[in-house]
Structure formats: C-alpha cells, structure tokens
Amino acid sequence: MQRVNMDADTAAHTEPSLEEEEPYFSNLDLLLFSLIVGLVVYWYMSRKKPEPIPEFKKLDTAAPAARETSFIEKMKKTGKNIIVFYGSQTGTGEEFANRLSKDAQRYGMKGMAADPEEYEMAELARLSQIENSLAIFCMATYGEGDPTDNAQDFYDWLQEIDDEDLSGLNYTVFALGNKTYEHYNAMGKYVDKRLEELGAKRIFDLGLGDDDGNLEEDFVSWREQFWPSVCEHFGVEASGDDSSIRQYELKEHTDLNMNKVYSGEMGRLKSFEVQKPPYDSKNPFLAPVTVNRKLNKAGDRHLMHVELDITGSKIRYDSGDHVAVFPTNDSAMVNKLGQILGVNLDVVISLNNLDEESNKKHPFPCPTTYRTALTHYLDISQPPRTNVLYELAQYASDPKDQENMRRMSSSSSEGKALYHSWVQGACRNILAILEDMPSLRPPVDHLCELLPRLQARYYSIASSSKVHPDRISICAVVVEYETPTGRTNKGVATNWLKNKLVTDNGHKSTVPMFIRKSQFRLPFKATNPVIMIGPGTGIAPFMGFIQERGWLKEQGKEVGETVLYFGCRYKNEDYIYQEELEEAEKKGVLTQLNIAFSRDQEQKVYVQHLLKNSKEHLWKLIHSDNAHIYVCGDAKNMAKDVQTALQDIAEELGSMTRTQATDYVKKLMTKGRYSQDVWT
User: Which residue ranges does the record assign to the Flavodoxin-like domain (predicted)?
Assistant: First the structure.
C-alpha cells in the first residue's frame, strides 16, 4: 500500500510542469469529446440489448424439477400401483427390484423399479393417493452395517424426520446381507422398523437374504409367499400369466456413424477418448499401469502387485480407501457365446425400454455392439439366477430341458435342490449351461436383456498418498479353479489385471478406475498405537498405513507403536512384501513384526494364535494406551477368530466375564477403535 501512495504523490507533483505547456485541447473540448463517446457507447449497447438470446429460452423450456423427482406423478401417469425401491452396491438389490416389478404384471398389477437417489422420498406420504398402492424396499447392507451409496440420502431422511405421518403407506422389505458380517442386514432391518415407527403398515414380513448361505433361494422362497399375500390383502386375483415379459425391444442399426456407438464407456460417450474430471462410477479415469509384478516366490498361486498412475487426474485418496476398477470379460468366452448362438457379434444394436416413462432407457449404454455388451457391460461368468432360467426355458426345443429349467426356477424343494446342484454347485455360468443344453438357443438380444450388469471390483489401496500422491497400488491374488464339470473358471477381474502388462504391443495398458472413500482410517493422533491384523492380501491397506507412519516419523512427528500381525502359508513361497516389511522394522517404523507361517510346521499357526502369544503387551496397548485395532481379510473365519481371541484376552487380563469381554470389544467398535475391512 505504501508504494502505491508514493506513486500517486509523484504523479501529483509532476502535473504542474505539464500544465505550463500550451495544451492542444482545452478541458472543455476533452469533456465534450468524452460525453459524445459515452453517448455512442450507450446507444450501441442499448441497441443490442433487446436481441433475443436463444440459450435463455432453452432454459425456460426445461422440464420442471417436480416431474423429474416425483414418483407419485410418474405412477399416476403410467397407471402403476407398485413401486420397488432398491439400495444396491453390487447390482443384486437392483436385479431383485426389477424382478419384483416385473412380477406385478403376472399378479394383475403394474410395478416400477426405482432408485431412491433419483426421487423425492418424502412423497411416500402421498402414495395412498394411488389405489391399492404398495412400496417394496429391496435394501442391501454395505460395509459395517451401512446403507449403499444410492440409499444414503434415503437413510439420512429416515433418521432426520420425526413428524412425518406415513399411516397411509403399505410397505414390505426384503433385506440383502451376509451372516458372516457383524451387522447382518442392518439396513433392511432399520428401514422395516423405521417405517413402522412412522405409522406405515407392513403388509408382509421382512425377508432376510443371506449371501453366505443361498441368497437366491432366500429371495425365491420369500417372493413365492409374498405375492399371494399381496393379492389377498388387496382382494385381487392373480392373472395366471406365466409367459415371458419383455422389458426392452431390439433395434438394429445398419447405417449409424460409429462415433455415436458406445465402446465400453460407463456414462458419457467418448469419455475414454476425452477424459474430464471429476472421476466416479459413471466417469472412470483410464489410469496407465506402471508396475505389474508377481509377489510370491513359488507355489501354484499368483499374487500380484499392480501400480496405477493417476498423474494429472486430480484424483485424491487416503490410506484405507478403496480403488474400484472396471474389468472386461475374457474375449474367448465372448467369442464362444457368439459362436454357440450363431450371431454376428459386431452388429450395432439398441435395447430400448418399452416403458417410455422409465428413467432407465436401456439395460446398458446403447447403441453398442453385442461384442461390446458381452465384453464390457454384462456378467457372463457368474451362475445365472433362477429368473434367467425361467425366462430362457421357452427357447429350449427339448421338452425335458424346458421342464428342468422351469423346475429349477420354482420354489419347490426338488427345484431348489436341482438348481443348487446343477447350477450353483457345478459353478455353471451361462456359457456352460448353453454347452450342456444343446437344445437351448435363445435370441442373443433376450439373453443380453436378462444377464446382470458386470460390476466394478473394489480393492483396498496398498499405498499412501502422503508418499505416493500420483500412484495407487493394488495387491490381489489371481482366482482360478476347476469346477465339478471339469471346466476351468477364472476370476474376471484378477485375470484381467494379471494380463495388464505395462506395455502391450507398444501401447500403455490402462485400467478404468475411481476411488471409493472408506471409514478404515488411521487414528487422528499419530501418537496412538496401531495394531494391524491382515493375513494374505489382507495386508494391502496396511502397506499404506506403514508408509504413512514412516512419512510422519520423517516429518519429525511423534508416532505411537505400530504393530503388524501378518500370515501366509510358507516363508519361502508367499511371504509377500518381505523386503518392505523387514526394512520398515529395521527403521523402527514397524515396532513389532509378527508373522504366522501357517504350513511351515506340523501344527498350523494363524494370526489369532500370535495375538495370544503377545497378549500382555497387546492388552496394555488396547486398555491403557488407547490403541486402534484394524482387521483386514477373510470375514468368514479369520475376522471372527481374531475377534474371539481379543475377547479371550479381555476376559483373562481384564478380569471380566464373557459377556463383559464381548461388550468391551463391541464398545471398541462403536468408538471407532476397532475397524474391519473384510470380505467373503
């Protein structure tokens, strides 16, 4: 500011010397000239103003927001009385919702599936305006009892409202979960209970689907009892129409510009050619692969470390977050499907929704080719669900095949047993079913309509953004096994990642990816001790944690104890990241490195056994030093065994009863001091 004032003073001091010379224009001339210029500018601007600007008119004609978010108005307009909302993370909840909305037609009603994220859920109070109306909720639970991403706003709304009267709402809930998790079906149970508290009327019992057992069977059994109950409640008779109901119609394109054809993009056409942030599930970033190396020294498995370059993407991540990748199906499988069905896979097609009012215009991005759909968009590797068999049965020319397919899709005990043994137990995917049923040759467009979407795969990030801001590491084991029918089944994503070489025929390999935030976080205070328990690829997030704790030490911060319990089969085979871990221990970043080599001795040793070997020190860290515990890996056995071991330690060294010890560990969880990143 001082300098500006000095310059002003200088200018003021030089003015008198200029005035001593005879001016070319008087002050009056300058004033008149300025006035004329001003009038000309004003006239010009005012003359341009009234010209219409088309963009403004376009904005005025946009559809009102109420129409876009009002499911009530949409139901009234299309004559529908049943709405099926879904909370879905991997697509199964959405798939079940679509099946129920389709079912409605068979029972003389009309239904629609709906994503709660797209609608104003406060309108549930108005659903009674529609005669014989019913809201069905297919709600999956994600993570530690959390709602799925698309149901988060609905969950928040249910928690916040207290004065909402839903007494006119008829509802039922089918919950999707997994019994191996601590908070089994928490979201479905909460929605069921909360709607009742707000005055809504439950017309059929809550359904509980267990993915650790047989989710498909649970759903089919619930559904078979649900519809007769609905018909009885509303006093309607089932139409008895068991025929196949198509949701989409096929359109083949013969002269379409290929620039308008989807080639694997998730949302915006050509988004892989012209990348624009922000990046998410609809707009993934194509990250170049910079490292792809095998981690294990020997053995018949393939454990790999893959690094993705996110330079220039503006993607940010924290230690403990997940990276989601979009894999593609094996081209050999896709070609075999095309060969068996006798179709040209490169025909450009669109599958258009027969319900013009539906928000979902296509089952996957269209227009595209059959090859792209079967490679990028559809899941051809999982055993198909019973509804797919039911719909395809009509295309079996052998009556016996047709009968077996219909039986497998029924709720009879015989049908369930046949489906369980012939499809699930034998790990038959759609290709194997077509190979083993030569009389079954469905139209490829109907098959594409029925197959579920190929989902993104999530991996715990094995690096720290503090150390590697432009790099994301993945640690995974390649899935490959022989089925009871003698076929070799390969994990879609892990085999795809394995083949992502750094350079492929001179081109950089890329992986479509985005970041999903996690609650699996290092403690806010670096002085808090950290106890990490992760056998096998469960070590992934802890590689990031170790890097970050090392970085904090380098910054001169005081860092608490960092203890790792890691497990593998053999020291000389699959002791992954051995050099990095031993270097971290040498530098004092890892204060304790405990490793269970489960098969190097006659008696198997696992991480839970090591916990008990150092129970006194562990108890001090947890009970006295405010340590944070992290568990990553298998949910079914390891995570439960670790929890039991910690309860044993609390009972013994804390002088507690079993109930007190169990409550003590649960309290650590609720306080955020016991975090799990586990899978089945």
Answer: 82-227
